[in-house]
Design goal:
- The protein is of the alpha/beta class.
- Helix content is 33%, strand content 25%.
- The protein is built from twelve helices and 14 strands.
- α4 packs parallel to α5.
- The longest helix is centred in the last third of the chain and has 17 residues.
- The chain is globular, with a radius of gyration of 20 Å.
- The model has no long low-confidence stretch (mean pLDDT 97).
Length: 338
């Protein structure tokens, strides 16, 4: 007997990441029962252009209480995502949220409590790993032992500010969680995943505002130093990408092992090859560029399977919690430079 398609709904369209959250699920044959969002957020126009057949609900409760909906996806304003997730789980729905999934320790504690009580899935879409084919290939190489034991990761997550497109909440760290909670959660996810560590120590963290004096609360620069007994990591995130770059940010990751290293240039190889997903492997045999064009993006397919089978193949629940715990800890302990 044919298995009916997974049914999902979208609540909160305040960030453009909702495009791939919804689009990937539709590509897998899932059915979107509708969406709801407050007001007219900037991504709404692009959403309607991409998905003209989706209907807008007049109340999020209609989607949350629909017994036929299996999964709720959200890219609401960051400080509202935990509330959406809690309501969804209490209504028997699994959740896939844009990062950061929470913005305060209190929100994380509530999400943990409700997830434990309900047994539902709470998954944060760490797109800088899940949406990058070169990251899939890098993980395959690390798992195969291509560079020996991983001892250090250096990651950069620069972004373009795009000030004219940013809503007022973007400039308020109380709403976004701060630059480390938000952007650096990607790098923390990659560190735990590629080192195989369950947890880590925040050795140091720093935030600053160097280029936006008219928005004093905004953090436009951040860095984190992570440490375990077997590995360390340094990560820098910022909102300084100049308009002259061909994409929104030159995201990079270098994975150092005892027998070689991998460099991933996720979105652009400046003054080099065109396109995205550039990966370089250096080992005792030499230096080579690794083709990532056929590398899969398994997160969404695995999440659909997890919803059906009550498994944890896309990402373990513990890993998801630990990433956000570390991001919140780094943010809370960060020294703010003058």
């Amino acid at each position: 007997m044919a298995v009916p398609p997974l049914r999902f709904a979208a609540i909160g369209l305040d960030h453009r990441h909702i495009y791939h959250q919804v689009g990937r699920l539709l590509d897998l044959g899932c059915t979107c029962t509708g969406f709801w969002t407050e007001g007219e957020p900037q991504p709404l126009g692009g959403f309607l252009e991409r998905f003209p057949d989706l209907s807008r609900a007049d109340d999020p409760a209609r989607l949350l209480e629909d017994l036929d909906v299996d999964l709720i996806v959200t890219a609401a304003i960051p400080d509202e995502r935990a509330g959406v997730a809690v309501r969804a789980m209490r209504n028997g729905k699994d959740v896939m949220t844009d990062k950061p999934g929470v913005t305060t320790p209190e929100q994380l504690a509530e999400v943990k409590r409700v997830q434990t009580e309900t047994g539902r899935i709470w998954s944060v879409d760490f797109s800088e790993r899940f949406e990058v084919r070169a990251m899939t290939r890098a993980a395959e190489l690390v798992e195969a032992g291509a560079i020996g034991e991983v001892v250090h990761l250096t990651g950069f997550g620069p972004h373009r500010l795009n000030r004219p497109l940013r809503p007022p909440w973007f400039f308020d760290p109380a709403r976004t969680g701060g630059i480390l909670c938000d952007l650096a959660s990607h790098q923390i996810d990659q560190f735990l995943y590629l080192t195989g560590a369950e947890d880590a120590e925040i050795a140091a963290s720093t935030v600053a505002n160097r280029a936006n004096p008219d928005d004093l609360e905004l953090e436009d620069y951040g860095e984190v130093l992570l440490r375990t007994e077997r590995a360390t990591g340094f990560f820098r995130v910022d909102w300084y990408t100049p308009d002259g770059l061909s994409t929104w940010g030159d995201g990079r990751l270098t994975v150092l092992g005892t027998e070689g290293f991998i460099e991933v240039r996720k979105y652009v190889d400046i003054a080099g090859a065109s396109g995205t997903d550039h990966l370089f492997l250096v080992d005792k045999a030499g230096t080579r560029r690794v083709d990532c064009r056929d590398a899969p993006l398994p997160y969404y397919e695995a999440l659909v399977r997890d919803v059906r089978e009550r498994s944890e193949t896309a990402m373990s629940q513990g890993h998801c919690f630990n990433v956000m715990e570390l991001a919140l800890r780094a943010q809370a302990r960060a020294r703010r430079l003058p």
